[in-house]
Amino acid sequence: MKFFEHSAKKVFESEGIKILEGHVVYSPEEAMEVATEFGRPIVLKSQVLVGGRGKAGGIKFADNPGEALEIANELLKLEIKGEKVKHLLIEEKANIKKEFFLSVSNDRANRRPIIMASAEGGVEIEELAKTSPEKIIRYNVNPLKEFLPYEAREIARKMGVGSELISPLGSIIWKLYNVYDKYDAEVAEINPLILTDDGLIAADAKLEIENDALFRHQDLVKQNRFKQKDFAFVKLDGDIAVIGNGAGLTLTGMDMVTLFGGKPATFLDIGGGASEETINKALSLVLNYPPVKVVFLNVLGGITRADDVARGVIAALEANKWDVNIVIRLTGTNEEEGQRLFDEAGIPYEISLEEAAKKAVEMCNEIKAKEAGK
Ligand code: GDP
Ligand code: MN
């Protein structure tokens, strides 16, 4: 299974490899917000599982928030080698002095892991292998023995880098091998590893895990699947964020809000997901959308059970210490248990859709009246 760059980078970082601060965005507006927060030039990177995004026009730079909005809009319409771009990773634009290539993969012919490294990073390795194979250092690791830091430094030395880089580069090679080993990877790759004033940083990250070993890395798989999933999210011009589990239900929620005189700020269909992670993501998406004053979560338990949704909501609210103006409507399969959980957690809820929509509109009006009174 292949992992998106941003997921791979989190894994690399957890093993001590430096990455750039980054944010994943799903819309041009979010891209603009992130660019504003950074307050300096950024790079916008299409998150797809195919390689060669740079060449395909999937990596772009923006100097200001306005540019970020425009470019994100373009990138989110892009299809790279048949794969639709659904989200972008935004990072601060790095000042690159030099680019290296590092990878650890399976060498089937030799039945051992192989480390490949080159001081000529950035370009695709297949290309480099064709044009100047002598520039790629290859090193087979004995999987029965521990891979030692001095071996990694030896590889760095062979890459022909300055003496000051041998130790830091060796350290990253060693860490990358550990990622490969620990995560049952088929490929763990950094191309380019960049040299900046802040030292060596993984500017790109590729991670592919052996399918047969995925059961050992469920957390990572969940994260990746979730990111791949189409989370139908539309920003509107009102102030009540409508979230529902299912497109029809979400639309009904919006209609009800409108009927009682409110204006929806979002259409967000969370689909069949009820996990804490899904609810977390849904809430943070809408809470990061500035016009939102009230969240209206409309849940009808079907295949997704109401009590599971309740658990997801409670966990998400508690984990983030979120103090949200939220109206929850909860009915359907296992509603008694879900409602009991909410009662226990002290979270109010409604059963009737009309009541819930009405309450959301009233809550929003009260907030606006208070704000106007200030
Ligand atoms: P790939 O084409 O899918 O491998 O995407 P990469 O993440 O490797 O990016 C392609 C190229 O964009 C890199 O080789 C860099 O030259 C350039 N690039 C990526 N991030 C940055 C950055 O932060 N600053 C600068 N100056 N260039 C970048
Ligand atoms: Mn790359």
From TrEMBL:
<comment type="function">
    <text>Succinyl-CoA synthetase functions in the citric acid cycle (TCA), coupling the hydrolysis of succinyl-CoA to the synthesis of either ATP or GTP and thus represents the only step of substrate-level phosphorylation in the TCA. The beta subunit provides nucleotide specificity of the enzyme and binds the substrate succinate, while the binding sites for coenzyme A and phosphate are found in the alpha subunit.</text>
</comment>
<dbReference type="Pfam" id="PF00549">
    <property type="entry name" value="Ligase_CoA"/>
</dbReference>
<feature type="binding site">
    <location>
        <position position="91"/>
    </location>
    <ligand>
        <name>ATP</name>
    </ligand>
</feature>
<comment type="pathway">
    <text>Carbohydrate metabolism; tricarboxylic acid cycle; succinate from succinyl-CoA (ligase route): step 1/1.</text>
</comment>
<keyword id="KW-0436">Ligase</keyword>
<dbReference type="GO" id="GO:0006099">
    <property type="term" value="P:tricarboxylic acid cycle"/>
</dbReference>
<feature type="binding site">
    <location>
        <position position="204"/>
    </location>
    <ligand>
        <name>Mg(2+)</name>
    </ligand>
</feature>
<dbReference type="GO" id="GO:0005524">
    <property type="term" value="F:ATP binding"/>
</dbReference>
<dbReference type="InterPro" id="IPR016102">
    <property type="entry name" value="Succinyl-CoA_synth-like"/>
</dbReference>
<keyword id="KW-0067">ATP-binding</keyword>
<keyword id="KW-0479">Metal-binding</keyword>
<feature type="binding site">
    <location>
        <position position="245"/>
    </location>
    <ligand>
        <name>substrate</name>
    </ligand>
</feature>
<feature type="binding site">
    <location>
        <position position="94"/>
    </location>
    <ligand>
        <name>ATP</name>
    </ligand>
</feature>
<protein>
    <recommendedName>
        <fullName>Succinate--CoA ligase [ADP-forming] subunit beta</fullName>
        <ecNumber>6.2.1.5</ecNumber>
    </recommendedName>
</protein>
<keyword id="KW-0547">Nucleotide-binding</keyword>
<dbReference type="InterPro" id="IPR013650">
    <property type="entry name" value="ATP-grasp_succ-CoA_synth-type"/>
</dbReference>
<comment type="similarity">
    <text>Belongs to the succinate/malate CoA ligase beta subunit family.</text>
</comment>
<dbReference type="InterPro" id="IPR017866">
    <property type="entry name" value="Succ-CoA_synthase_bsu_CS"/>
</dbReference>
<feature type="binding site">
    <location>
        <position position="191"/>
    </location>
    <ligand>
        <name>Mg(2+)</name>
    </ligand>
</feature>
<feature type="domain" description="ATP-grasp">
    <location>
        <begin position="9"/>
        <end position="222"/>
    </location>
</feature>
<dbReference type="GO" id="GO:0042709">
    <property type="term" value="C:succinate-CoA ligase complex"/>
</dbReference>
<feature type="binding site">
    <location>
        <begin position="302"/>
        <end position="304"/>
    </location>
    <ligand>
        <name>substrate</name>
    </ligand>
</feature>
<comment type="subunit">
    <text>Heterotetramer of two alpha and two beta subunits.</text>
</comment>
<dbReference type="InterPro" id="IPR005811">
    <property type="entry name" value="SUCC_ACL_C"/>
</dbReference>
<dbReference type="InterPro" id="IPR005809">
    <property type="entry name" value="Succ_CoA_ligase-like_bsu"/>
</dbReference>
<dbReference type="GO" id="GO:0000287">
    <property type="term" value="F:magnesium ion binding"/>
</dbReference>
<dbReference type="Pfam" id="PF08442">
    <property type="entry name" value="ATP-grasp_2"/>
</dbReference>
<feature type="binding site">
    <location>
        <position position="99"/>
    </location>
    <ligand>
        <name>ATP</name>
    </ligand>
</feature>
<dbReference type="GO" id="GO:0004775">
    <property type="term" value="F:succinate-CoA ligase (ADP-forming) activity"/>
</dbReference>
<feature type="binding site">
    <location>
        <begin position="52"/>
        <end position="54"/>
    </location>
    <ligand>
        <name>ATP</name>
    </ligand>
</feature>
<keyword id="KW-0816">Tricarboxylic acid cycle</keyword>
<dbReference type="GO" id="GO:0004776">
    <property type="term" value="F:succinate-CoA ligase (GDP-forming) activity"/>
</dbReference>
<dbReference type="GO" id="GO:0006104">
    <property type="term" value="P:succinyl-CoA metabolic process"/>
</dbReference>
<dbReference type="InterPro" id="IPR011761">
    <property type="entry name" value="ATP-grasp"/>
</dbReference>
<dbReference type="InterPro" id="IPR013815">
    <property type="entry name" value="ATP_grasp_subdomain_1"/>
</dbReference>
<feature type="binding site">
    <location>
        <position position="45"/>
    </location>
    <ligand>
        <name>ATP</name>
    </ligand>
</feature>
<keyword id="KW-0460">Magnesium</keyword>
